[in-house]
Amino acid sequence: MAPAPYVVPIVDSTAIFKDDIFKGKVLFCTGGGSGICRGMTEAMMRHGANAVILGRKFDRLTQTAKELSQATGRECLPVQVDVREPATLKEAVAKTIAKFGRIDYVICGAAGNFLVPIQNMSENAFKTVMEIDTIGSFNTVKATLAHVRASKGAYIHVSATLHYSGTPFQAHVSAAKAGVDALSAVLAVEEGPNGVRSNVIAPGPIANTEGMDRLSPKGDEYKLPGYPAGRMGVVGDIANATVFLFSDAAAYITGQVLPVDGGSMHLQGSL
Ligand code: HXC
User: How far from the centroid of its chain's Cα atoms is residue 126's Cα?
Assistant: First the structure.
């Protein structure tokens, strides 16, 4: 008998948390136009926050902002930036303050990825991902920090689990995400006395996201070794971790990396 088709489960996003825990707060999220960061933003808005989503594709951002506002009843401002260009982030922060007057939470999520072995990777390909992921995160922190200090807010950096071992064809992303993890740790230590927290979420294989589709074309996930948690991750899993880490329930958690991967990083040969 043929095995039953694999169905990615829907995890009800963040319903376990109170509705209004982020009421009056403002989220600033790079990469929020799609994928995991869109899900993180939606979760924060469902719990009361207004949001600014940032990225290079303005049309997509505008559409996403409309959909998120309709779904949550909160305001969402789309702003075009290239995180490699500090001036665009500074301008985006000015627009955020003009509209909402504050920034409480920042998600550094903008990232680039593609599969290529070191032998074939151009210097510019490596540099491009370092610039988007690592330098882009630094630029985002620089542009927002004064406001996050003022609100005694918090950062979440979206990293990965693939650099905790040697993942083939991912030299650029592995180096870049290791830098992101380090940046967050230093930010936590330097800014803790100012009331600012900084943590990393390291997603494992998350179904129906651009990153996963690029690394493992649809269908190939069936061929990966069994998942310790019995299933792939879904965006709702990352959203739940986001709400927890930004909430007061995590007030004493800073400088940490939280893998949200169902235990996959401990499985030999996994993503
Ligand atoms: C080899 C490639 C390539 C590919 C680009 N390059 N794509 N090399 N294979 N598939 C090279 C180009 O040839 C060029 O080098 C250099 O990279 C820059 O490419 P550009 O297209 O000029 O840059 P840009 O327009 O700035 O785009 C950057 C980008 C981006 C990184 C390619 O468009 C991108 O990847 N977007 C995808 C977003 C994404 O995947 N987000 C999810 C991330 S998930 P040369 O030498 O030719 O000039 C994630 C976590 C993964 O990060 C963990 C999952 C488990």
Answer: 20
Q: For the residues of 74-100, what is the DSSP string, one character each?
A: S-EEEEE--TT-HHHHHHHHHHHHHHH
ipTM of the complex: 0.95
Q: How far apart are CA 271 and CA 267, in angstroms?
A: 9
For residue 92, is it within any domain? yes
Ligand 1: residue whose CA is nearest its atom 55: 205
Supply the pTM of this predicted model. Answer: 0.94
Q: How many CB atoms lie within 10 A of CB 68?
A: 23
The answer to the question of residue 154 being in a domain is yes
Output the CA 103–ligand 1 centroid distance in Å.
30
Residues 6+ apart with CB under 8 A from 38: 32, 53, 64, 68, 235
Interval 168-180: pLDDT, tens: 999 999 999 999 9
Question: Residue 172: in which H helix or E strand, if any?
Answer: helix 171-191
Half-sphere CA count of 207, side-chain side, radius 13 A = 19
Cα gap 95→168, rounded to integer Å: 41
Residue 6 lies in a domain: no
Catalytic residue among 177, 184, 198, 270: 177
Residue 159 annotated as catalytic: yes
CATH number at residue 242: 3.40.50.720
Q: What percent of the chain has a predicted confidence (pLDDT) above 90?
A: 81
* Tally of domains within the chain: 1
Whether residue 112 has its Cβ less than 6 Å from ligand 1: yes
